[in-house]
Amino acid sequence: MNPIVLHDLTLGYDGHPAVHHLSGVFEAGSMTAVVGPNGSGKSTLLKGLTGILHPLGGRIDRGNLKTSRIAYLPQAAEIDRSFPITVLDVVSLGLWHHVGMFGGLTSRHWQQARQALGSVGLSGFETRAIGNLSAGQFQRVLFARLLLQDCSVILLDEPFTAIDERTTADLLDVVRGWHAEKRTIIAVLHDMEQVHLFFPRTLMLAREPIGWGDTAEILTPENLQLSRRMCEAWDEAAEVCLIGEP
Amino acid sequence: MIHLFHFFLGPFQDFAFMRHALVACLALALGCGPVGVLLVLKRMSLVGDALSHAVLPGVAIGFLVSGLSLYAMTLGGIVAGLAVALVAGVVARFTLLKEDASFAAVYLMSLALGVLIVSLRGSNIDLIHILFGTILAVDDADLILVACISSITLVTLALIYRPLVVECFDPGYLRSVGGWGAMMHFIFLVLVVLNLVAGFRALGTLMAVGLMMVPAASARFWAREVWSMALVAVFIAMLSGYTGLILSFYVNLPSGPAIILTAGLCYVCSVIVGIHGSVYSRRRLGLHLGG
């Protein structure tokens, strides 16, 4: 497994940078929290890492890792929850790498999907429509799909936002399991206590990178204050920049 | 008993044109059912409508070049429909206009052009035939065309079913695993155009989209998975085709509107008594509608 190396990376939309001149390394098998105020470029960074968004400047060195083998959990809003599809069907999509666009699923595949569903605590939900699930249950379904994807790099964008404590604890166990298996994990988080307790590495963003290193060294009161100040500055700047936009 | 049989089957035993019309409807239902369901799930119901109008100038040019010739009109319709889908898609992708707005703009231009071309040459009767179809004059060549298009539709859908469904439900995931989202979307639009062109001869450009959208919208109330929704939609479309033809035979109604109105009746029933999310099922569960 290779590290993911960022070389002077700038990412953004329509030429406006959201991540500015970021350099550093996500070591193979590391578990990193990405923190920072809203609009600081955290989600943009994840989109860049998946390859969905192309850099405006600099580059991302993923070694020989194909972008299709990077598991990515976006913010839940991008999924149509009213779509008529069963829980087990959604989970089984995690096997895409094995069955591809056209292949059929064998009984062993279905067995794997059921096991994944069991390990996120949703046994018995196989034939339920996803529209009938709570937000927490649906997030468990998406984690089961991530389990099946079996990728060495896993990106999570605010995976525990609007999720209750019990579900968060269960899903954090899944994430720690991945860490124990030496997978590289990069998660956007807002809960600083979670970051302190579970994430050894932290990258703090606020328009510019503020710090990247061991969590205890990055999550200092001074840094948090700095990021808040830069956030305020960012908001004022954003108002000016938004003129002329749709 | 024999009287009943004769009532329901007699017209098809006695008249070849009724048999032709029925087979055309059943074949159309097979293709239009699943395509309509996917349009509904993609929230593109009105795009189907737009595309059905968009084929008109192509049909009209075919008509202008070679009269009421099946092949010229079909080819023209397919080319015009695809051109509109492509232009609207490109505008949506590269400008700030959303896909529905760009579709509306392009199809209206297309429709106006079509009406203009037909009125330059044909009589009003021809225009009526093209807009509303002549299902009772479906001949063998029409049947072969409809059957081919339905077969192509079903085989293609079977092949690209998985990426197409994922593209509807979670396009981000398809992108992240490297699926061909844009390609699937375009192949699907081609199927929509093909089915509308298959329907235009029998039902007319205005009514063809009815057999696609109305059963599909009804099916949402009866099924909870894409494949079962498609089956329900096909069933409703077939039932509407048959009932509409029987009605038009005995009550002397124009067949196209009779078929679509029968489907409409199925839709109204589904909205009221369907088992998933209908007025009745929501009431029975003790849910109330949001203010």
Instruction: Give the CATH H-level superfamily of the domain at 1-65 and 153-163 and 184-246 in chain A.
Output: P-loop containing nucleotide triphosphate hydrolases
CATH architecture of chain B: Orthogonal Bundle
Series of secondary-structure elements of chain A, N-terminal to C-terminal: EEEHEEHHHHEHEHEEHH
CATH superfamily of chain B: ABC transporter involved in vitamin B12 uptake, BtuC
The pLDDT mean of chain A sits at 84
Distance between the termini of chain A: 43 Å
**Major β-sheet profile of chain A:** 6 strands, mixed
CATH class of chain B: Mainly Alpha
Provide the residue-averaged pLDDT of chain B.
Answer: 85
Which structural class fits the helix and strand makeup of chain A?
alpha/beta
The CATH topology of the domain at 1-65 and 153-163 and 184-246 in chain A is given as: Rossmann fold
- Our measurement of the CA-to-CA distance between the termini of chain B, rounded to an integer number of angstroms, reads 51 Å
Low-confidence stretches of chain B: none
Tell me the count of domains of chain B: 1
What is the string of helix and strand elements of chain B?
HHHHHHHHHHHHH
- Number of alpha- plus pi-helical segments of chain A: 9
Overall body shape of chain A: globular
Shape of chain B: globular
